[in-house]
Amino acid sequence: MQERNFGYIFIVSASVIVILAGIKSASEIVVPFLLSLFIAIILSPSYNYFNKKGLPNVLSLTLVMSLFVILLLLVAKLIGSSVQEFSSNISVYEQQLSSSFDKLFEIFMNMGFELPKSELLSIIDPKQIMQLSSGIVQGIGSMFTNGFVILLSVIFMLLESQHFTDKVAFASGNRGMKEDIQEIVGKIKRYMVLKAIISLFTAFVIYVALLIIGTDYAFLWAVLAFMLNFIPNIGSIIAAIPVVLLTLVQLGSLSAFMVSVLYIIVNVVIGSVIEPKVMGKGLGLSTLVVFLSLIFWGWLLGIVGMLLSIPLTMMAKIVFDSNKETKFIAVLLGTADNLVEKK
Hints:
It is globular and about 75 Å long. It has helices at residues 2-25, 27-52, 57-88, 90-110, 117-123, 126-142, 147-160, 164-172, 175-213, 218-228, 235-251, 253-279, 287-301, 303-307, 309-321, 327-333, 336-342. It is mostly helical. Helix content is 85%, strand content 0%. Helix 9 packs antiparallel against helix 10 (218-228). The two termini are 30 Å apart.
């Protein structure tokens, strides 16, 4: 019996590894599909609202997609020039950042502190730091490269959304599967919609504050904050890196300190106070699982995987929980509160 169980576990593990290797090698196809899926989930409440008002499916879809495309084109136009200008000026920012570091070392030397300048610069190399900042900005811009394919996929997904669960339940012959799919879609829809609203509010606060401080490309950094706010734990830190560095070389250390305080306050107030109240009890995932899922999906699918790490993990947890043989995995992914509720 033990040999049989060992063989079963070995086959399942090998199958999972093969599937993950296939997903990683086909990431150019999988990533646009996942983006389309979650965009469709975010847009589905508006689509369903127009349908309930008595509008035909085609007209409802046209209204929703027209508004979405106009918004997307407006954002792309506003950040496109900023991304190009920021990337083209990266060498200038490197020199200015090096000069700022030299001044900082001089201040410490005048205060009587002798710092190992060469060793510290090898760790915090201004060139590598600015290249990292440029990579973050360009990585967000690269998400829009498959825009036409994503838009078409979203359109077809919205059209199929009303009948998809019925088709799957009928094809499988399992009536309970319809409820499982509706639960998955419902939880992910709630998370994505609320997270999008909170991220939009976060971006607005940062945009207004950066305009007041005087940091260049304020709208670009607001869009970056909106996107990276979907990444748990470290998203706001990643979004703050290029803004603080740019403010440092553009306006000086005092303004850079003000921007740092701004991101800390926004992260604490919105991330730790407002978001938990809006989201309710939580995601049903342990903190360790949230962090590990961020690393895993980021490795598997890149920055899109990081953005969608929580919805993908929630989906996996619900699927595992619906099957007796994999229920223990769902328990391991959950929090201690879930154990209390089940007792």
